[in-house]
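Collaboration report, partner site 2.

Our partner group contributed sequences for two proteins of shared interest, and the home lab folded both. The records are reproduced in the order in which they were received, starting with the first partner submission.
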Amino acid sequence: MARTRTTKKLAQRIDLNYFKRTTALKRAKFFLSVGVPALALVWIGWHGLAKDPRVYSSGRMSEAHAVLEAECAACHVQTAGAFSAAASETACLSCHDGPMHHASSKSSPACATCHQEHRGRVNMIAARNQSCSECHGDLRASGGAGRFEKHIYSLQEGHPEFAAVRAGVSDPGAIKMNHAIHLKMIRRGPNGPNVQLECGNCHRPAGVDADVTYGDAKYRAAAVSYKESDELLEEDTQTLRPPNASSGRELMTPVKFANACAGCHLLTFDERFDEGVPHDKPEVVHAFLVKKFSEYIAAHPGELQEAREPERDLTGKPLQPVARVYRRDEWVSARIRDAEELLWRKTCKQCHAMASAAGQNNLPVVAPARTTIKWMPHAKFDHDGHRGFSCVSCHEKALNSTQASDVLLPGIASCKGCHAPGPDHAESRCFECHTYHDWAKRKEVRPTFTLPALRTGGQ
């Protein structure tokens, strides 16, 4: 006879007290739900008794603030036995005085809006593009027309061409220079060998020793009557200054005749002398000629009698006497006149803009060099950070430039080739080239903190 299986009989086989019995799984669940939190509380309490606040920290601090990593109270105000979640603005300003970007700004963002901590050993200056585009994405001038682009979101989106290389802009410098000739094989001096110049022979940062391959030791040692600052264009006083001190390798210094030119461009003035005139103002050059010719004729009085050279006779001009006897002052004046004719009309004029002769001794006026030191006054740039690249890879215009008025800076397209988003490119966020705070208006702060290592005796 077959066994009958009913629901009632099956239900009688179920142990209704199964939930009261302990099992390995239940014990594991109990330990995880009660034991682990208990251990966590003990661990937190232990660190609290040891006054080690790292256990409460949101993460490691930036490299600049690493020394304060165990000093939460330095930035977070402690109230009612707990630290505030946000850092105090006063705490930031007690160490850093960051003047505003524009005094006319309607609002002043809190420090932590752009500079966020507890993200590890990162650069605190590396603000997000969004922080800048909040204003520059829709830049409205508070008084009249604005000086800058009104809609810039990033280097790739909305950033205009650099002002220095826009159409119609020319170099205001007065020194005549043909880069195309100097970057080809060129003769070194009137009788020298052919040489190949490099950009670094003339252009060097201030923090780097000058390349004197084509310089002259005598001119380098000589003092000059003009000031180098008189040859430079004034910088824009409204430019925001970066917070860091200059290393001397960011920008190129003006090219000096003594370092880069004197070895090829000789300032010789008369076959009687092996040396050239000083590279100085016309007044100084004139005084030098007077002294040199006066000393020479005093040592060689026989040259006061000068024989006519037939090969120098000019057709249609009256013939000079076969021989002429000069007084000493006449001879000196004649030689100075010949030397200055050569200098003013050829040698000096080859590089300098010479105005008509005027004033005492009828000397010409040499136009100031008007050299531009910083072409992009509203941006930061560091040549030292680009030292691995050849000069012409950015300044390729120099290879074909024949006019001194040419601006040889690279355009924004050259920068975008390397500076772009993504791990395979160089940094391209706004902070890389621009600064926000006007550090020229910074105020010195009074130090208030003691280094933890010194206070606790740690290493």
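Second partner submission, folded after the first:
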Amino acid sequence: MQGYSEIEANDLFDMMTEQKILLVDVRNDDEVARGIIPGAQHLPLAMIPVKFESLNGDQSLVFYCHSGMRSAQAAAFVASKGRNHVYNLRGGVLAWGKAGYPFGPKA
């Protein structure tokens, strides 16, 4: 069992409007420079094990990357440590953009 759930872009958009979530972009700096999903924090995949404690809490935790592969690794790692309500954005920013949702600059 993977311990996390896959979420579609439409579901993520709805989740973002209905509740407070922690949205984490695990892409590299050069990828994030092209745009980020509004409200996301940038935490490169390699830093997830180091910064794991900062991801604790009760709110839903959603990871994303370019296509959903690296973020699935992050979601699996965090879920394996006992974190609940962990999601991976299926298709990453490619799916987000294809669904017509906006990007913004890194804060």
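Feedback sent to the partner group on the second submission included the following. The longest strand covers residues 21-25. The chain has one domain: 5-98.
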